[in-house]
């Protein structure tokens, strides 16, 4: 392994890129590498000559995105449980992969990417000659991007198309951006490795994906429905998304929005579907869940992460977490072991 160790816990919004590389002929080592960096419920089985197994990967973790260039050297089959916490895109650089997800079969190659939503198991048939870009974007990050940019109420998970074009239009530009960023971050002392620049690149990857994915809503990106949100609601949402860990009260948010408490609550009921503080709690829970899902159990603790996201009463936090995700926070963290 080269390029650095897996990152420990970081403050919300951290933008320090971490490069991790691996070259190995050991199937178990490659499997563990992919589980740590991408998803725990992942299985890799050779269907070609096991003697030809030559795993090669360079992966960069940058806040809510994980970028990698991966190749296996022999034909393999990958199965993954529901992603839950992330959207994912595969961009073959050469060769072809056969993907099955949510009943749709996609043959992805250098002309067409495959897109995964955070629901439903995935099956991949990946030839040994195929090298591809693997891009993971945390669910909350992509949904926040659409929410903040377009002032509309979102359906979660977003009903994204299963594929997009890589030859023309925004798909070609987005894939080139991802590949350039990965190349820069894997090299020594690149400009993109500076935290301020890395944050801008990260935002371009997330916002570019939001504008690239196919969707059933005409000229608007996927998942949008409901009326346009008033400026007062937008101000409160912007404040919560910018600093979700701040101890906001309903009076604080009303002051940010420039209206009275009752007006703000009624506006949220109409345009968001829940009270402001309920939305804030959900935003924080999603942030904790995403961070627990990518943290090393040996280096992170549930209480530290919960406090960073603004939860000061651990008992109430644990109960709300279990209601939302169906498991305890510690179970989510242990699943990364």
TrEMBL record:
Ranges for domain HTH araC/xylS-type: 234-335
Keyword Manganese: no
Highest taxon in the source lineage: Bacteria
PROSITE patterns membership: HTH_ARAC_FAMILY_2
Matching InterPro entries: AraC-bd_2, AraC_XylS_family_regulators, Homeodomain-like_sf, HTH_AraC
Record's keyword terms, sorted: DNA-binding, Transcription, Transcription regulation
SMART domains given in the database record: HTH_ARAC
SUPFAM superfamilies: Homeodomain-like
PANTHER family: HTH-TYPE DNA-BINDING TRANSCRIPTIONAL ACTIVATOR EUTR, HTH-TYPE TRANSCRIPTIONAL ACTIVATOR RHAS-RELATED
Protein's recorded name: AraC family transcriptional regulator
Gene source species: Actinoplanes sandaracinus
